[in-house]
Design brief:
Elements: H1 5-30, H2 35-39, H3 48-68, H4 80-86, H5 102-120, H6 125-129, H7 142-166
Helix pairs in contact: 1-7, 3-4, 3-5, 3-7
Length: 173
């Protein structure tokens, strides 16, 4: 469905607000965690470091790569190594030494998010109604790609919340 220009402007504003709200929730979940907490793997399935690295990778892929394409200087936002280590289809492993430090993962998360919010706020109505540069089964437009980003982040924030509880941290609310 193609929306009128005014509707898309409202939809873009709401979508960016949802991306920001999801990120605020994720950051709240991370605020009291030590580096050891980040790499704890209760149940042997995942750890918070992988979840956060995956969120940085996913936001890059959904909000930058699919919207405007890869750029030569994108390595300053998130490295190819991180995109591989945390990308779709990657599997968390228990060995913390196989991952960048918590501070590097957090920095990538922040850089990608800042670029997303700045670059996507400038998208035109025409841009948003186009198909993303790489297809995805859950959306067919660039606006849909942005909308999926906040939903995806909330799903992983739920996993972070569960991992927090499994390592003995109290719920936030």
């Amino acid at each position: 469905m193609i929306l009128s220009g005014q509707t898309i402007n409202v939809a873009l504003k709401q979508t960016l607000e949802q991306i920001q709200a999801a990120r605020c929730y994720t950051l709240e979940l991370l605020q009291d965690l030590s580096p050891e907490d980040w790499f704890a793997m209760p149940g042997g399935v995942s750890h918070i470091a992988w979840q956060v690295g995956h969120l940085a990778t996913a936001e890059y892929r959904l909000c930058l790569d699919r919207i405007r394409g890869e750029r030569a200087d994108d390595g300053r936002l998130i490295s190819l190594a991180m995109l591989t280590l945390f990308g779709r289809g990657s599997v968390p492993i228990a060995e913390a030494e196989k991952y960048p430090p918590m501070s590097d993962i957090r920095a990538a998360l922040e850089r990608v998010h800042k670029a997303t919010m700045m670059e996507c706020a400038r998208l035109s109505d025409d841009d948003l109604s186009l198909a993303p540069l790489r297809s995805h089964k859950y959306f067919s437009t660039k606006l849909g790609s942005l909308q999926w980003c906040s939903r995806h982040e909330m799903a992983h924030a739920g996993q972070i919340a569960l991992l927090r509880r499994m390592i003995g941290k109290p719920p936030l609310w």
